[in-house]
């Protein structure tokens, strides 16, 4: 069930034969290194196997601070009695720290394991989970438990997994008052009533969830850093933050803080926050030192600057390279990095002068700065050029700054995709972005190869995403929204996994392997994004949502506002002309052949046609339908799709825990009502604008 334990519930394995086989392989667990993550790995394995098989493996690990692996087996280092059993054991360790583990692999095999990767091998004697580092061993242990649960035979097991991305990060948009910006699953697990929490229970359990899917970094506060969060960098808060970092460290997750660019001015008593001012530079250096005193493995700073009313280097006539590099220099002596967001645009434009195109902003700001950023700076680029809409093209900034480290940013929290009231499995959306070929180095220059750093041979690369959890009993509100957090982690680890495979894995771990359950829920997940899209704003246009909170349809809510998010619908047509020929020129930010494809109305894919072109309602799409008929049909189909989701879920009654079934059911019912509202508002708006009736004469108000 998708409850508090999420995908780590480890339901008992029903098949007695299989259970016996697993028990035979896992009678004992031994790890003879003094390493925090390896101790965590052993504890996780012991716990998981006990629950899966009903039998507790004997467990031998090194107590903290005890002798190193060379003393392995010495009585003093054994915290639990070694098993005298004749069964086979699971051995955990690193190549460097454990002679035993090292000898199980050839030199070439050892060399094939990246810093955070792992190998799992079953031989006659034992099952070895080996890594180059303790973190790798921890990921290996979680993977092993996954294999056991998804029915993989252990005989002859021999797998190697290295993470595709170095940085696999989750961002909390949590505020110290306990609220979560764009949070849809309760209040913060980190903060309450303007205090950092002292109760580590949920934080530890969250760290576990993150590590189990391979995530290795977290920013624990909102990118919009207000007064009290700015103070996180001071002695008043650092000890408690260090306490949180301790919990994450045990699970291999590095802690980052979002910082306020104006901190030297706002809390440091300096007259300026100018990045070229020596006093400011010294302030950040001292601040970084203080942070590292308490958190020696601190990850670094995440920065939203000159965006949506946040301060930044523009105030001082400096650019973003000046700003990011100044922070990078303060962090460099300690091994920290700066993650600098590219979500920079003018949110105060005048709609009467619709010449500026917000979609262009990130590229226009950052391309001229390529090559100027320090090695320990990463630019974090949202997947699309606007803002996490249900459908956007890929940001053209991917591939356009080859001399800069980049990370891709996704939104796991469903701000624009149903706010965890609607079902919307986002992995297929992310995969589309990752698989987009930018042609930056010719064919085969997919976004995923830019994000992971490999295409341009960058030192740093990776994924970041806004989390979807809060203190709701099941973490995510909608039980099925857990699949998005799970899927994000798995995809960050392995960008080649398919959406279906990830969905299936999640269902098996969460609900068990009953075929009907697996097939039905996997199908629901896979259908959900297209369904949500079909009753949303049409054909890539986006933004027909209620201003501010972004839930529910509002046809003109943003049309006459300053945020730069227009659809330009009138009585003749709709869409934003972003061509070079007659529009904003945005299409020209892509490389060929993409630029040409988006420039041409005939070649632009249907789902993005209104993002790139202003067309009459009678324009005929590749599907053979006119734009207006597509809008009507899609919105009727969307409601039918939502109804089908509920029917599928209902077919699982009795096969799913009652509380869980009821929780998702009420949300799916709400989704239908809400899809109807979307359908009626959008269809009515376009009927009135266009005056063109529905070919099928359905009721439009
Ligand atoms: C938008 C959100 C806003 C965030 C902003 C960001 O509406 O709350 O602060 O993104 O990414 O999606 O900074």
From TrEMBL:
InterPro entries named among the record's database cross-references: A-glucoronidase_C_sf, GH, Glyco_hydro_67_aGlcAse, Glyco_hydro_67_aGlcAse_N, Glyco_hydro_67_C, Glyco_hydro_67_cat, Hex-like_dom2
Catalytic activity: Hydrolysis of (1->2)-alpha-D-(4-O-methyl)glucuronosyl links in the main chain of hardwood xylans
Residues annotated as signal peptide: none
Enzyme class: hydrolase
Pfam families, alphabetized: Glyco_hydro_67C, Glyco_hydro_67M, Glyco_hydro_67N
Keywords, comma-separated and alphabetical: Carbohydrate metabolism, Glycosidase, Hydrolase, Polysaccharide degradation, Xylan degradation
Positions of the Alpha glucuronidase N-terminal domain: 6-144
Keyword Lipid biosynthesis in annotation: no
Documented EC number(s): 3.2.1.131
Domain spans labelled Glycosyl hydrolase family 67 catalytic: 148-475
SUPFAM superfamilies: (Trans)glycosidases (SSF51445), beta-N-acetylhexosaminidase-like domain (SSF55545)
GO cellular component, one term: extracellular region
Active site residues according to the UniProt entry: 308, 387, 415
Sequence ranges assigned to domain Glycosyl hydrolase family 67 C-terminal in this UniProt record: 476-698
GO molecular function terms noted in the UniProt entry: alpha-glucuronidase activity; xylan alpha-1,2-glucuronosidase activity
GO biological process annotation, one example: glucuronoxylan catabolic process
Similarity-based family: Belongs to the glycosyl hydrolase 67 family.
Subunit note: Homodimer.
Protein name as catalogued: Xylan alpha-1,2-glucuronidase
Organism: Paenibacillus rhizovicinus
